[in-house]
Amino acid sequence: GHTIVVGPMENGQILVDGRPALYNFPSSESVAGMATLRYDAIGEVVDSAMRGMERHIVHMELPLGVQVQVMRWANHINVKIVMAPRVGGQDGHCGNHNGDPADDSAEAIEARIGGPVPPDECLFHHTTPVRPSPRHSLDECRMQDPVKYQLALRTCQAQEESLGYNQVQKDCVFDVCFAGEQYAGEDALENA
């Protein structure tokens, strides 16, 4: 089989079967018998906080009508997978594709399938276990990294000057503390 790896912009690359691919932007290429790949700035982002940022999206047309879009950001990726329901049904990390998001929680999926998708049923050759992330707080940022906290306050004050210190500004400070300055002001856009 073939392997496609897509990493973030800063420290990742795009590899097909271990070799660099799609190094020009925009570009496209075919992987015989497996995929058509395209790399461009076209597509909707899955994280609305990234809406105003420059897009670098890898589009994959895979067998069985599976379409994958990997949005490459500075230090992370977002993925959108579009596919038709499989004959006989399906279930897994993203749910059971029955159109009811209420039964696609991690708890509901675990109750139905009893744990992670078995390797022989997984559409992906390599998976990363999904673990709950630790809950962060503004107090944690203020106490553990006062310099970053002060930077976040200054950055967000400039972004939210007309709004005063409210929930939007608190969200902005949190985003800058734990995700980076590029997320400052995105909550204001979301909540405006």
What does this structure look like?
This protein is 24% helix and 19% strand. The chain has five helices and eight strands, in the order E-E-E-E-E-E-E-E-H-H-H-H-H. Helix 2 packs across helix 3 and helix 3 crosses helix 4. The C terminus is likely disordered.
Topology:
Blueprint: E1 4-6, E2 14-16, E3 19-20, E4 27-31, E5 35-40, E6 57-61, E7 67-72, E8 77-82, H1 106-113, H2 138-144, H3 146-159, H4 167-178, H5 186-191
Antiparallel strand pairs: 1-2, 2-3, 4-5, 5-6, 6-7, 7-8
Helix pairs in contact: 2-3, 3-4
Which properties best describe this structure?
single chain; 192 residues; alpha+beta; five-stranded antiparallel sheet; three-stranded antiparallel sheet; 24% helix
Q: In brief, what are we looking at here?
A:
The chain is α+β, with helices and mostly antiparallel strands and 192 residues long. It has helices spanning 106-113, 138-144, 146-159, 167-178, 186-191, and strands at 4-6, 14-16, 19-20, 27-31, 35-40, 57-61, 67-72, 77-82.
